[in-house]
């Protein structure tokens, strides 16, 4: 007979309903596969009357979160946000319950406090669903690739941004119109800032970077740029030069220092990562032994996220069953690299687009400024432009250069009278 | 202080050397990440004198396998083959040792006997490296996606075949010449049959299919066709129609029956799976909740395979440390589907290429035979051919049709006097 464990879900939203759905409808296959029986004990929410499109048996829905936690072996926090969600998780841990959460923002901001509480109460705290939805990337990084020194991680981890960029590329459309349509279709929030300004990707980048390098860095050292200023011209020019633009979480071991940054990035057009489209997520992990791996799937949505949440519930239940609580703790410090490299100190290849007056000496003066900074050009295309009269688009790809040198060069270029609009800069990663 | 576990490697070949390399050189990062210390206790092999390009400390190399097993907590079988390897694994299990193996052939043939021995001795038997090398596909399927009913798995799981097909496609070269070159370059064995005739992929398909559906099916029910007869013309024609050809392991839940088959398969050219090239492997897993996922990486080679072997060693060590032996047993029966569908009973889309006399009524007679069998044509192209005079290539893609109807139609077509050579048939999978 499989042992039975009571599961309480706090937060009856989209994902909460998806988790309940799996626990109610896939429990047989879960028991067959894992030999544990998961009982949906309670779903706690302030609103237990609105129809979520799923039939919940009587006696499960409750507004009494404290009781719901007490009755559970495993508590699933799906409230979201960083206030009450934190309280619920701490309450559950302090009551000795295993906790499963998908709350990337909370982990990125308050991870260390939560991990300490989990250690103090000798309980599991699992968060597979916090990064890349249904893709088992956290398990793969911590267990499947545990024999590797991680060199690089590149993640397309926000479906809303990837959807917008994909449509801008396919339809040669501008950001604002695609965003508006995405909001109509429900692919983007009414307030889209968390997604399109890169913060959501930054939360996930902070989590993966910390797991990869054994120190909980938190959100502060992650450099963040979103896609709000993405210009369809740059998508076209990038393609012309053999690249696609993606909003990437970039995590690197840079000679003993850690890089963690989020920004629109040019990557080779023929790479698998560049061909991950629409709302899908993909994470490339490079280890010293395994080489390059890639993990692809749905990064959001009711059922895909619920799939990861329930995988964590099963893991926690197996630990309870075998007496192996915290077999793999929420986070094990063991820093390989203590410091995060400031952006000014990174080295990168760059994409530059300048809108300049169409007059003699323009290219000479710009390339001279780059040359003075020892920044080498790998390719350059001048485009006629229809947007402004007597104006041309100058697109430059550089070889690797220090970011501070590039900033200095751009400052010099910026004051030239030939500029029709600010220089557009993006970074290039050759996978 | 991390607990220490002694590891014995049996078989000092390429992968064995890779595992030793990781245990000797990445032990610090492994201990940091997993809080267990792995000691390379012994490497047992008949030949302990040949240089494997790695410096092994004194006292580790031995020809005494029995002693090497006795001294270990975890035994790694990397001998390969299905005779002595089986004996070593059974000896280790019967001595209560945890066992890690990469031996897909042995598992496919004798899995149940090995699983029974592991259960009897209450020991772990881990085999992540047996499928798709460094890709943590077994852990992902059994743990990361444990909340899903598996619908379909498509795997490119043999690097040699994928390398050969990729080069045939890029260079429009014929199979024999690419194989010969691959053998020169060490990408193919002197006796390549295990790879190119599909048996290696079949072993992996048997393992994944059994894990997906909870019954150890073994190798017998897996239908196997290799790439030996792959014709570069078919690669070109497939591309023309929007497809690429890959040697796929196909695993499906077909209305309560299981499909397991290995054959060259046309898949949509723009799919991620179709864009996995050279020696790389990729496995697409579709679950009822997570939807489509894809796992990509190196499917073979010293370091990538060793990465998976060491991940298993760490898993086994963590189970020993937490007293959670067999937390996830080698195989847990819990059949969702008992039967494997015979090939004659499957339904598939088909690619047909006929070399026929260039004379009136040819298309009419062939399409009539298909129509009589209720086989519907989705597209048809007639190609002029330079190979034989008065001969044309007729390429037909069909809608889904029962395999037995297709076989019957091909039998009728085969006896037509218009045929210049046997009809070429391949199956199509639309991902």
Q: In percent terms, what proportion of residues of chain A is strand?
A: 25-35%
Main β-sheet of chain A, in a few words?
Answer: 11 strands, mixed
* Cα-to-Cα separation, first versus last residue of chain A: 49 Å
Indicate the multimeric state. Answer: homodimer
Please compute the radius of gyration of chain A using only Cα atoms: 24 Å
CATH topology-level name of the largest domain in chain A:
Dihydrodipicolinate Reductase, domain 2
Tally of domains of chain A:
3
Going by CATH, what is the homologous superfamily of the largest domain in chain A?
A: Dihydrodipicolinate Reductase, domain 2
Largest interface, by Cβ-Cβ below 8 angstroms: which chains and how many residues each? Answer: A-B, 62 and 62 residues
Mean of residue pLDDT values of chain A: 96
Give the total of beta strands of chain A.
Answer: 17
Estimated structural class of chain A:
alpha/beta
Uncertain runs of chain A are none
Tell me the number of helical segments of chain A per DSSP (H or I, 4 or more residues long).
Answer: 14
From the coordinates shown, what is the CATH architecture of the largest domain in chain A? 2-Layer Sandwich
The first-level CATH class name of the largest domain in chain A: Alpha Beta
Percentage of residues assigned to helices of chain A: 25-40%
Q: What is the overall shape of chain A?
A: elongated
Give the helices and strands, then pairings.
Two copies of one chain form a homodimer.
Chain A: E1 3-10, H1 14-25, H2 27-34, E2 36-44, E3 61-62, H3 65-70, E4 74-77, H4 84-94, E5 98-101, H5 104-120, E6 125-126, H6 137-144, E7 150-156, H7 159-171, H8 175-185, H9 193-196, H10 199-213, E8 223-224, H11 232-240, E9 243-254, E10 257-268, E11 280-287, E12 291-298, H12 302-321, E13 347-357, H13 362-372, E14 377-384, E15 391-398, E16 401-402, H14 403-414, E17 419-428
Parallel strand pairs in A: 1-2, 1-4, 2-3, 4-5, 5-6, 8-10, 10-17
Antiparallel strand pairs in A: 7-9, 7-11, 9-10, 11-12, 13-15, 13-16, 13-17, 14-15
Helix pairs in contact in A: 1-12, 4-5, 5-10, 7-8, 13-14
